[in-house]
Amino acid sequence: MKQQRTTIRDVAARAGVSPAAVSSHINDKGRMGGATRERIQAAIEDLQFTPNGLIRALQNRRTHVLGLLIGGLESLQRHPDDAYTMLLLSGIYEAADRAQQDIMLFTGWPNRPERMSGREFLDGRVDGLLWLAPPLQSVVLNQIAGAGGLPVMAMLTRHVPGNVGYVNADNLGGARAVIAHLVGLGHRRIAFAGPVQSSNFLDRFDGYRNGLDEAGIPFDSALAVTDSSLPFLLETTDDLFVNMLKNWRALPEPPTAVFVCTDRWAARLGKVAIEQGLRIPEDLSVVGFDDAVLAERVFGGLTTVRQPFEDIGRLCVDHLLRLIDGEAAEDCSVTCPVTLMARASSAQPRRI
């Protein structure tokens, strides 16, 4: 025979109090003598009573559960050195645990985007949503945060509707720091490689151009490869880097340094450069962005920009809770500082 679930009335009967008194004890409300609380708690433990979380959530209008929609987990199987997702999750978990919040992971993105209409987040299961699912769908976000009124914090982007908060790294400042570093070493011919279809990559490209301007170096479009198909082509072939380097080397003044917008692509470009007979950094300085695990394993150490992924995860949770408490999205949007990590892959050019 199936055992009946212990109810609040069973606890009240065992403790000799009313069900309302048990409810007050569970929710830590109202005045109650210490002896009464001890009897109720003893009854709860004796009967192994577990309060119904859904009912309590309806009563308190809070579930203390934060939703998490995150794309890219499947990429960890293909690119285990791209550990930023795990660092973000570590920061999210730490902050949620500290704030006594649970995390609910939503599936369906990006492999089944047709399932993501926005309605699935608005059924009352979560108090707010942490969003890391590029490319950002403004229609879905507006459905969630606008019409649905659910507080939303986006990670690693600033390209969000006005009613959505975000935590992002300073991509613009990080790219400017890269160019200042290379100029300080004596480089004047500095190339750039990366797509510009996302706000982060566009900021890195703008930082590259700003850095050149600050150094008094004219922008040369022949040195900038900003093909939007770059991420997709590089999943299957290095041909784009092969042709890129051949074209640069054929210029009257080839680049002596290249800034690549991610570490993984920087490592692959550097590998192709070595296959073409170039030495790193003697013939070509290579700089990436992210400070991924592989950055310390290639070229004696890849010069890069470190993003504070764990801090971003923690701040996203903290600011989502502020949104839930009614603060404005513009007051819950943060740009985190980044750090230039100078390593062996960048050095003075052979001819200055």
General description of the model:
By secondary structure, the protein is α/β, with parallel strands linked by helices. It has 3 domains: 8-51, no CATH class; 65-169 and 309-336, Response regulator (Rossmann fold, 3-Layer(aba) Sandwich), CATH 3.40.50.2300; 171-307, Rossmann fold, CATH 3.40.50. It has 13 helices and 12 strands. The strands form 3 sheets. It has a 6-stranded parallel beta sheet with strand order 2-1-3-4-5-11, with helices on both faces. Strands 7-6-8-9 form a 4-stranded parallel beta sheet. α1 (8-15) packs across α3, α6 (84-98) packs across α13 (309-324) and α8 (171-185) runs parallel beside α9. The model has no long low-confidence stretch (mean pLDDT 86).
Quick structural summary:
The chain is an alpha/beta fold.
Give the secondary structure arrangement, pairings included.
Blueprint: H1 8-15, H2 19-26, H3 34-47, H4 53-60, E1 65-70, H5 75-78, H6 84-98, E2 102-106, E3 128-132, H7 138-147, E4 152-155, E5 165-169, H8 171-185, E6 190-193, H9 199-214, E7 224-225, H10 230-233, H11 239-249, E8 257-260, H12 263-275, E9 285-287, E10 304-306, H13 309-324, E11 334-336, E12 339-341
Helix pairs in contact: 1-2, 1-3, 6-13, 8-9
